[in-house]
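Posting for a labmate who doesn't have an account.
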Amino acid sequence: MSRSYDSSARSWTRRPAEKKRFPREHRDRIRTPLTELTGVEHPIVQTGMGWVAGPRLVTATAEAGGLGILASATMTLAELEQAIVETKGRTEKPFGVNLRADAADAMDRVNLLVKYGVKALPLCWPPSANSLTS
């Protein structure tokens, strides 16, 4: 409901709000290389955070139109596969899995992502002891 002023009656009256011009799925969309490449609705990425970014958070982000990222650094290979399967069971929308490039089983993890059709693979390379000194 919205209000308008009726000058002849010198009072405010309520009237139904105007209908939206476009359906929700077409309003406020920003198209970017990220949205086009990954198939997400909004250019928002929820990063992988160890012990936090599990299937529930990733699913919620994906369902809201963003790109949810599973944190795999704290998971074994079997736990990662289980998390991917759980996430795919919760949503049909795209999501990603982050990996540490220096993990001993990095290629096994990449093969797992390919097997399940994971859309995004952000990589991280932890700093070396030398890079932390001036």
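Reply:
Got it, the structure tokens are right above this. The CA atoms of residues 40 and 65 lie 6 Å apart.
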